[in-house]
Amino acid sequence: MKIKINDIPKDGMELSESQDAGALDLARDDLRFVSPISISAFITRDKDEAYVRLTAKGKLEITCARCLSPYSIDFKRDFDLSYDLKGKTSLDLTEDIRQEIILEYPLKPLCRQDCKGLCQVCGKNLNEGSCGHKPDTLKWNGIER
Ligand SMILES: [Zn+2]
Ligand SMILES: [Zn+2]
User: Fold this and answer.
1) In angstroms, what is the span from residue 116 Cα to ligand 1's centroid?
2) How far is the CA of 127 from the centre of ligand 1 (A)?
3) At residue 65, what are phi and psi to the nearest 5 degrees?
4) Which of 43, 99, 107, 124 qualifies as a FRET site for 115, CA 20 to 30 Å off?
């Protein structure tokens, strides 16, 4: 998202655009956007400073850290940026938007709060039912992981 500083009117302006997630280089090993990211911004200017209020929206596909199943969420975050305009004629927000979005990624994504994960013996997804293996018994046998 690029803005010409002279285009910013006194009362501020709204801008919106749709960004290709691939072009923004937003994928992480365990998550990626499966939709374009829609970005809307309201930009105001005060002498040598610009303030930007942004909303980024899109659909994220995530791999659960426990059961390794994919799930998707609607990503939506608001954030504020400010810029010093001295000596500049235009602003490029792209890299800042990219970093703000990445900062909002979950550190340890879970498909649900109580995700039971995978059985350490047979690898079955325990959210789909029990396989009969008991993790506690394994600890007593010293096969703990
Ligand atoms: Zn899970
Ligand atoms: Zn099992």
Assistant:
1) 7
2) 7
3) -70, -20
4) 99
Q: How far is the CA of 68 from the centre of ligand 1 (A)?
A: 6
Domain containing 31 equals 2-113
Task: State the pTM of this model.
Answer: 0.81
Whether residue 61 sits in one domain with residue 122: no
Q: Given the structure tokens 């105001």, which residue do they identify?
A: 44
Is there a single domain that holds both residue 94 and residue 47? Answer: yes
Q: Tens digit of pLDDT for each residue in 76-133?
A: 999 999 999 999 999 999 999 999 999 999 999 999 999 999 999 999 999 999 999 9
**133 and 81 in a common domain:** no
According to DSSP, the residues that pair with 46 across neighbouring strands are 49
Instruction: Please tell me the total count of domains within the chain.
Output: 2
Both 70 and 51 in one domain: the answer is yes
CA separation, residue 20 to residues 57, 61, 115, 124, 135 (Å): 12, 15, 31, 36, 44
CA–centroid distance, 114 to ligand 1, in Å, is 8
Burial 21-46 (b: 16+ CB within 10 A, else e): beebebeeebbebeebbebebebbbe
Tell whether 102 and 38 lie within a shared domain: yes
